[in-house]
């Protein structure tokens, strides 16, 4: 199947030779540390080595070439070259470059982009074009970033494979028979396939971190409140955050810095200072012999017990050994409430979704099914507009919030959330960061869990607790396990204290730059380059 | 398959494994509780990462989910086939939620979300949205300053 993705070699070389940026990343040797796409772009633009238009053309070419198989995008912007030319003109005039100048960015389709389709991969919003930009999009545009398109996802973020999109199934660039994870599967796969440099996703219970693990890229979920959610289509408001993908820790961190900060349009956004993350991204040449000396790392015992694939467990333990070799002090920690997070999460997420999705009524925007009576209009518009998983979660939430059941389900789940928050707080008082696998397994086959909701939900066990506690966490590739044409990536999850993303980025960057033996470039990309 | 092993719903069998943490109490399978679920006919043991929670009860005040009625409340039309499919799946998930009833949460305050500072509300003052034409363009049925909907009937 992979062979169908490979274009004639001469064609691919001719198409991509215009940009050294892309070729250099794809053809980097197995042992050289990965390079930041954002910093490399900036250097190339400042030196006049390339132009934003050239970069944009090469990414559009790559999308044209790979998209028929990967299906990462629901919409590719028709304004990419125009946006690129405008930035080139500003450069020609000697204007100062924004920190994201020329950076090609994919955006999950549940984030509103003015005038560009934003559907959350749902039929009920098919053809919907928002009248405004989400705050994160406005920030990206103000800093010179170029939105290349909208990425595929599980409808409204409800799923862990991207199979629950109403429009298409995205495949994993490492093995085209496997899922990319979800719900931000399109954003993760697009970065893995270098269809964009970085991307935005959203993470309600692991929807950035699990696909990052499956696709071998970095996924960063910020602290609840760090990034404005104005313009993010709400799924579960007490859990949702916008997160970042990159092929390096530095890229994910720089994108996070660009979109972070208080926003008066989101009362849940925080006024906490956003530190300058870039100082964390030292070159590997400047590392000391034990660059993480004294950093206390707690490995969560419950995440390495039965039910976790042996390959994933080994990769996590090897990652822990690597951190020790870098100077970290490793201890095992226990979170007694860990296993309760999964049912508590699904009660809370379903309940909040049943409330949040009531706005899709077919009256004010989105698809409408006309009927003779108003309630019928609502019912038919929603019945035809929502997919199976969305309907199921709304109905479960409706049940859990029914009169007389609220205390037993929603309130009780919120009490369990308190227990989870306390356990994390205690563990993070003793440790700088906590580590665990990002998911119990590497990417699995398309269709494997599609009809079994409990099997699908179980895959979220590593990530949901972090959302319940509102903490920041980052997943970065730490090893490969058997599977697919050349192995499947496995991600390591690092969890930090609230608003301490800087520490995660520092540890993650040093870990990534010193990890030997694995190159996290999907085989199809190496073949193209 | 890894995640199947993580969370397996298996037939009822004698309790065999309990959490040692002081704040979790596992109820006896023969006890009744005002917070117990409707699992008389569906005794289940839910196993999570090597730990088991008995959710078996003899009495319950909760009704199993009635999908047609829930769909009406949620204003979603379902085909008979969808009702049947949802019935099975939702029942399994609600059964699985039942393990939360076994956790002792006495004197635990609920958290509505992560801890965060308050006072971030903006002034409650009207502002003009410049792109209102675009909002109107998104409305499926619009007639001169009005959203158009079919007649509204009061249901007895």
Can you walk through the features of this model?
The complex is a heterodimer of chains A (529) and B (156). In chain A, strands 1-3-2-4-6-5-10-11-9-7-8 form an eleven-stranded mixed β-sheet, sandwiched between helices. Chain A starts with 8 loop residues before the first helix and ends with a helix. With 529 residues, chain A is of the alpha/beta class. Helices cover 39% and strands 12% of the residues of chain A. Chain A is built from 18 helices and eleven strands. The longest helix of chain A is centred in the C-terminal third of the chain and has 24 residues. By secondary structure, chain B is of the alpha+beta class. Chain B has four helices and five strands; from the N terminus they run αβββαααββ. The interface between A and B is large, with 104 and 75 residues. Chain B: Its EC number is 6.3.5.-.
Task: Give the helices and strands, then pairings.
The complex is a heterodimer of chains A (529) and B (156).
Chain A: H1 9-16, H2 20-26, H3 37-46, H4 52-70, E1 73-76, H5 80-92, E2 104-108, H6 135-142, E3 146-151, H7 185-192, E4 198-203, H8 209-215, E5 218-221, E6 241-246, H9 249-259, E7 296-300, H10 310-325, E8 329-333, H11 341-356, H12 374-385, H13 388-400, H14 407-430, E9 433-437, H15 453-458, H16 464-469, E10 473-481, E11 488-495, H17 501-514, H18 523-528
Helix pairs in contact in A: 4-5, 7-8, 11-13, 11-14
Chain B: H1 2-6, E1 7-11, E2 44-48, E3 51-54, H2 67-73, H3 80-97, H4 132-138, E4 142-143, E5 146-147
Antiparallel strand pairs in B: 1-2, 2-3, 4-5
Function (chain B): Allows the formation of correctly charged Gln-tRNA(Gln) through the transamidation of misacylated Glu-tRNA(Gln) in chloroplasts and mitochondria. The reaction takes place in the presence of glutamine and ATP through an activated gamma-phospho-Glu-tRNA(Gln).
GO biological process, one term (chain B): glutaminyl-tRNAGln biosynthesis via transamidation
InterPro entries (chain B): Asp/Glu-ADT_sf_sub_c (IPR036113), GatC (IPR003837)
